[in-house]
Write a structure and sequence with these properties.
Blueprint lengths: L18 H19 L5 E3 L12 E7 L10 E2 L11 E3 L4 E4 L2 E13 L3 E7 L1 E3 L9 E8 L14 E9 L16 E10 L4 E8 L14 E3 L7 E3 L6 E7 L3 E6 L2 E7 L13 E9 L13 E13 L6
Parallel strand pairs: 1-14, 4-7
Antiparallel strand pairs: 2-19, 3-8, 5-6, 6-7, 6-19, 8-18, 9-15, 9-19, 10-11, 10-18, 11-12, 12-13, 15-16, 16-17
Length: 317
C-alpha cells in the first residue's frame, strides 16, 4: 500500500485553501500514485485546518475555539434521550473542555432515565438552541471523530457522531415547528464502511407534515462506498466539515472540498429552509449496540472549533 498525503497544519490559525487547490492536490496525489506504482494504490486524505470563512467575501458571525465552555453559546443536555431506538443516555458529565477542545465522551456506563429505564451507554450532546442561531451562510466544525472500529465484527460501527442544524424554535414558522417540517441539515454523520476506509454522510430531511419525512435515502457519502483509492483517518486527525446554505441550495464540504449538494425543487417537494437554525454536536450509539459485545469504548469526539459566517454586503447567497 502506498499512501499519498497532504500536510496537516497543527497551528490553530485558520489556513484558507480553495476547493480548486484541494482538488488539484488530490488529483496530483492519485496521478503520482498511478504513475509510480500502477493501479490499486491507496491515497490517504489527511486533515487540514481549512476555514471556508477565511474567504474575504465572508465575515465571521460566530466562532468558538473552546478555551472554556461558554454558557452563552451552548447547553450540555443532562439525563436526556433521543428516541427509543438509540442506546445511550446523554449526560452533561460526558462533556468537557480541555486543551482548547470540546470533548464528548461515549462509554459503557449504567445510567437510569427517570429512575425506571436502564441504559448501558452514556454520551454527550451540546446545542446552541435559543443561544446561537443563524439563517443562511456557512457553518463548519473542525473535529476528530470517534473511532469507526467501535463495535463488533459483522456490524456497522456503533458510535454515531453528528454535527447538525435544526430550526430555532423561537423563530420558526410556526413557532416550535415539528420535525421535519422545518427541515434538518446534517452537516456530518458517521460512519459507513468503504472498501478501504469508512465514509461520512451528508443528509437533508424535509416534510410537509409532522413526522412524515420526505427524504428518500439519497445522501452524500465521502469517500464513496466503492472507493478503493481513498483512505481517511477520521479519529486520529482533525477534519473540517461544513455547509454553505443559500436560498435555493445547500452544499456540503469536507476539508474545503465540495462533496454533495441539494437543490430546491429536486425532487419537486424539496424546499430549502428560510428560518434560522441552531447547531447540535453529539455522539449517539446505534440501535444494534450491545454493551456485553461491543469493544472500543470509551471513545472521544474532539471538537477543535465551530465557525459560522455570513456573506459580505457585496456578496449574497
Amino acid at each position: 500500500e502506498f499512501a499519498c498525503s497532504r500536510s496537516s497544519p497543527v497551528s490553530r490559525q485558520r489556513a484558507f485553501r480553495t476547493p480548486f487547490v484541494m482538488m488539484w492536490l488530490q488529483r496530483r496525489c492519485k496521478v503520482l500514485c498511478v504513475a509510480i506504482f500502477g493501479v490499486g494504490c491507496v491515497a490517504t486524505a489527511s486533515g487540514t485546518n481549512i476555514s471556508m470563512c477565511a474567504d474575504p467575501k465572508w465575515t465571521i458571525s460566530f466562532e468558538d475555539t473552546f478555551n472554556f465552555f461558554d454558557n452563552n453559546n451552548w447547553v450540555a443536555l443532562n439525563n436526556v434521550t433521543h428516541g427509543p431506538t438509540e442506546k445511550q443516555l446523554y449526560i452533561s458529565d460526558n462533556v468537557r473542555v480541555e486543551n482548547g477542545t470540546l470533548i464528548i465522551t461515549t462509554k459503557k456506563q449504567v445510567a437510569w432515565y427517570n429512575a425506571n429505564t436502564r441504559y448501558n451507554f452514556t454520551s454527550g450532546w451540546i446545542e446552541s438552541k435559543s443561544k446561537r442561531f443563524q439563517r443562511y451562510g456557512r457553518f463548519e466544525v473542525r473535529a476528530k471523530l470517534p473511532s469507526p472500529s467501535v463495535g463488533r465484527q459483522g456490524k456497522w460501527p456503533t458510535a454515531w457522531p453528528a454535527h447538525w442544524l435544526m430550526p430555532e424554535p423561537t423563530t420558526s414558522v410556526p413557532p416550535n415547528v415539528c420535525w421535519p417540517v422545518g427541515g434538518e441539515i446534517d452537516i456530518m454523520e458517521a460512519y459507513r464502511f468503504t472498501k478501504v476506509s469508512s465514509s461520512v454522510l451528508m443528509t437533508y430531511h424535509w416534510a410537509k407534515e409532522c413526522n412524515k419525512d420526505l427524504w428518500t435515502g439519497l445522501q452524500g457519502k465521502w469517500p464513496e462506498p466503492n472507493d478503493t483509492t481513498t483512505k481517511v483517518d477520521w479519529d486520529d486527525e482533525f477534519h473540517t466539515f461544513g455547509i454553505e446554505w443559500s436560498r435555493d441550495k445547500i452544499e456540503w464540504f469536507v476539508d474545503g472540498v465540495l462533496r454533495y449538494s441539494r437543490q430546491a425543487g429536486s425532487p419537486p417537494s424539496l424546499f430549502i429552509p428560510s428560518t434560522p437554525f441552531y447547531m447540535i454536536l453529539n455522539t449517539a450509539m446505534e440501535p444494534w449496540s450491545e454493551a456485553s459485545l461491543d469493544s472500543g469504548l470509551p471513545t472521544e469526539h474532539v471538537i477543535d472549533r465551530v465557525t459560522w459566517c455570513i456573506p459580505n454586503a457585496a456578496h449574497t447567497v
